[in-house]
């Protein structure tokens, strides 16, 4: 019988690596799937999903700018999707739409792969957009001592704190970070995409700090370059998170845990 159909929906979508990643997972785990990317017009998201379900689609990944709309389409949501306020994984089963968010688990898995200790750690999360909010619940599950959210627009960080109502999470301006110590700094801003550096005080970088950037690319991001220059213990980019979130989606759909490292290595080589 024909392979199960999956898709990633977004705008833009041309550069998505998700079809490659999922086909490698499927080949290695002897699963029969067909995974395509689909460009969706800005006002055409719910129609595109309805059509795909009608055609027998089994599941979908959702990317920019439709993750919030995907949340409203779902009949049932996981707790991590509800708290993220966004859905990146839809499953179509028994006439229902199930919504999940695997970004945070993808990040946590990648941190663990990179031997970053989260238990009792003091985490600084830069940015208060969808990506920052989306990773908080899985990060909290790893038992950090504290998570400080720093954002240019501090009110957005405050709002996330209120939403989570967890006494380990607090908000800060960039300037106030200078007096604080951290073990792990996660850049969840989009600054790297435009070649910028968030306005972080240099004093918070030391040889005990690990720096993570959700962005990845051929060249080291401005944040990771800067962190290295100021003596950070270790720097890690977001390629592993990308493959990690895909692996968790694959597991949600297929019940099989794929191996991520060969896929990370392959994508890394293709970036060069
Ligand atoms: P949003 O647009 O929702 O949020 C952007 C955030 O970045 C805001 O907090 C904004 O601050 C901040 N920001 C933007 N430019 C600057 C700057 N120059 N200096 C300081 N802060 C800045 O984006 P998302 O949260 O959806 O995504 C953030 C990043 O995470 C993106 O680059 C995305 O590619 C990456 N990502 C990577 C994933 C992966 O798998 N590797 C998964 C998901 C996301 P303010 O509120 O003050 O404007």
TrEMBL record:
<feature type="active site" description="Proton acceptor">
    <location>
        <position position="67"/>
    </location>
</feature>
<dbReference type="GO" id="GO:0009423">
    <property type="term" value="P:chorismate biosynthetic process"/>
</dbReference>
<keyword id="KW-0521">NADP</keyword>
<dbReference type="Pfam" id="PF18317">
    <property type="entry name" value="SDH_C"/>
</dbReference>
<dbReference type="InterPro" id="IPR046346">
    <property type="entry name" value="Aminoacid_DH-like_N_sf"/>
</dbReference>
<dbReference type="InterPro" id="IPR013708">
    <property type="entry name" value="Shikimate_DH-bd_N"/>
</dbReference>
<comment type="subunit">
    <text>Homodimer.</text>
</comment>
<dbReference type="GO" id="GO:0019632">
    <property type="term" value="P:shikimate metabolic process"/>
</dbReference>
<feature type="binding site">
    <location>
        <position position="245"/>
    </location>
    <ligand>
        <name>shikimate</name>
    </ligand>
</feature>
<feature type="domain" description="Shikimate dehydrogenase substrate binding N-terminal">
    <location>
        <begin position="8"/>
        <end position="90"/>
    </location>
</feature>
<dbReference type="Pfam" id="PF08501">
    <property type="entry name" value="Shikimate_dh_N"/>
</dbReference>
<feature type="binding site">
    <location>
        <begin position="16"/>
        <end position="18"/>
    </location>
    <ligand>
        <name>shikimate</name>
    </ligand>
</feature>
<comment type="function">
    <text>Involved in the biosynthesis of the chorismate, which leads to the biosynthesis of aromatic amino acids. Catalyzes the reversible NADPH linked reduction of 3-dehydroshikimate (DHSA) to yield shikimate (SA).</text>
</comment>
<comment type="pathway">
    <text>Metabolic intermediate biosynthesis; chorismate biosynthesis; chorismate from D-erythrose 4-phosphate and phosphoenolpyruvate: step 4/7.</text>
</comment>
<dbReference type="InterPro" id="IPR036291">
    <property type="entry name" value="NAD(P)-bd_dom_sf"/>
</dbReference>
<feature type="binding site">
    <location>
        <position position="214"/>
    </location>
    <ligand>
        <name>NADP(+)</name>
    </ligand>
</feature>
<dbReference type="GO" id="GO:0004764">
    <property type="term" value="F:shikimate 3-dehydrogenase (NADP+) activity"/>
</dbReference>
<dbReference type="GO" id="GO:0008652">
    <property type="term" value="P:amino acid biosynthetic process"/>
</dbReference>
<feature type="binding site">
    <location>
        <position position="79"/>
    </location>
    <ligand>
        <name>NADP(+)</name>
    </ligand>
</feature>
<feature type="binding site">
    <location>
        <position position="88"/>
    </location>
    <ligand>
        <name>shikimate</name>
    </ligand>
</feature>
<dbReference type="InterPro" id="IPR041121">
    <property type="entry name" value="SDH_C"/>
</dbReference>
<dbReference type="GO" id="GO:0009073">
    <property type="term" value="P:aromatic amino acid family biosynthetic process"/>
</dbReference>
<dbReference type="GO" id="GO:0050661">
    <property type="term" value="F:NADP binding"/>
</dbReference>
<feature type="domain" description="Quinate/shikimate 5-dehydrogenase/glutamyl-tRNA reductase">
    <location>
        <begin position="118"/>
        <end position="192"/>
    </location>
</feature>
<feature type="binding site">
    <location>
        <position position="63"/>
    </location>
    <ligand>
        <name>shikimate</name>
    </ligand>
</feature>
<feature type="domain" description="SDH C-terminal">
    <location>
        <begin position="238"/>
        <end position="268"/>
    </location>
</feature>
<keyword id="KW-0057">Aromatic amino acid biosynthesis</keyword>
<dbReference type="InterPro" id="IPR011342">
    <property type="entry name" value="Shikimate_DH"/>
</dbReference>
<comment type="similarity">
    <text>Belongs to the shikimate dehydrogenase family.</text>
</comment>
<keyword id="KW-0560">Oxidoreductase</keyword>
<keyword id="KW-0028">Amino-acid biosynthesis</keyword>
<feature type="binding site">
    <location>
        <begin position="127"/>
        <end position="131"/>
    </location>
    <ligand>
        <name>NADP(+)</name>
    </ligand>
</feature>
<dbReference type="GO" id="GO:0005829">
    <property type="term" value="C:cytosol"/>
</dbReference>
<feature type="binding site">
    <location>
        <position position="103"/>
    </location>
    <ligand>
        <name>shikimate</name>
    </ligand>
</feature>
<dbReference type="InterPro" id="IPR006151">
    <property type="entry name" value="Shikm_DH/Glu-tRNA_Rdtase"/>
</dbReference>
<feature type="binding site">
    <location>
        <position position="238"/>
    </location>
    <ligand>
        <name>NADP(+)</name>
    </ligand>
</feature>
<feature type="binding site">
    <location>
        <begin position="151"/>
        <end position="156"/>
    </location>
    <ligand>
        <name>NADP(+)</name>
    </ligand>
</feature>
<dbReference type="InterPro" id="IPR022893">
    <property type="entry name" value="Shikimate_DH_fam"/>
</dbReference>
<protein>
    <recommendedName>
        <fullName>Shikimate dehydrogenase (NADP(+))</fullName>
        <ecNumber>1.1.1.25</ecNumber>
    </recommendedName>
</protein>
<dbReference type="Pfam" id="PF01488">
    <property type="entry name" value="Shikimate_DH"/>
</dbReference>
<feature type="binding site">
    <location>
        <position position="216"/>
    </location>
    <ligand>
        <name>shikimate</name>
    </ligand>
</feature>
